[in-house]
Amino acid sequence: VQLQASGGGLVQAGGSLRLSCAASGRTFSSYAMAWFRQGPGKEREFVGRISGGGSNTYYADSVKGRFTISRDNAKNTVYLQMNSLKPEDTAVYYCAADRGTLVRTRRDDYSYWGQGTQVTVSS
After folding, report:
1. Which whole number is the average pLDDT over 41-49?
2. What local confidence, expressed as pLDDT, does residue 3 receive?
3. Given this model, what pLDDT does residue 73 score?
4. 47: left (phi > 0), else alpha (psi -120 to 50), else beta?
5. SS3 of 107, please?
6. What is the pLDDT of residues 58-100, one digit of tens each?
7. The predicted structure's pLDDT at residue 89
8. Contacts 24+ apart (CB under 8 A), 83-88
9. pLDDT at residue 26 above 80?
10. Angle (CA) 1 117 22, round 5°
11. Contact 100, 48 (CB under 8 A)
12. β-strands 57-59, 3-6: how paired?
């Protein structure tokens, strides 16, 4: 599966942004999808994950209650709605795909990656 992330940009603290990740292929619903991010000088970290059917989500504590992952399998697209953004949310955001059913939060668990989209939150 090939992934293309988009929707990044510059936003003020407290603002909102929605990222999209479009996938190729006809088996999109068989993949769990995740978002990761990598801030300046930091390791890539897990943000959240959604199951193939969209009924189960899991988030990192740092974004819980502020970020929401959803997906539209008819459009082969997963979304990351980011609200109440903080300067520490500044990072390149990546979408990733995994065919497993267990919740996975490690970068190495994901075989397919999008190219990343920059999110910058100004204070």
Report:
1. 97
2. 97
3. 96
4. alpha
5. helix
6. 999 999 999 999 999 999 999 999 999 999 999 999 999 999 8
7. 98
8. 83/16, 84/14, 84/16, 85/11, 85/12, 85/13, 85/14, 85/15, 85/16, 85/17, 85/119, 85/121, 86/13, 86/121, 87/13, 87/121, 87/122, 87/123, 88/39, 88/121
9. no
10. 30
11. no
12. unpaired
Structure tokens at 115: 């190219």
> Residue with structure tokens 């109440």?
84
Q: How many residues does the chain have?
A: 123
Find where tokens 């897990």 sit.
46
Cβ(96)–Cβ(112) below 8 Å: yes
Closest to 22 in 3D by CA, of 111, 117, 114, 99? 114
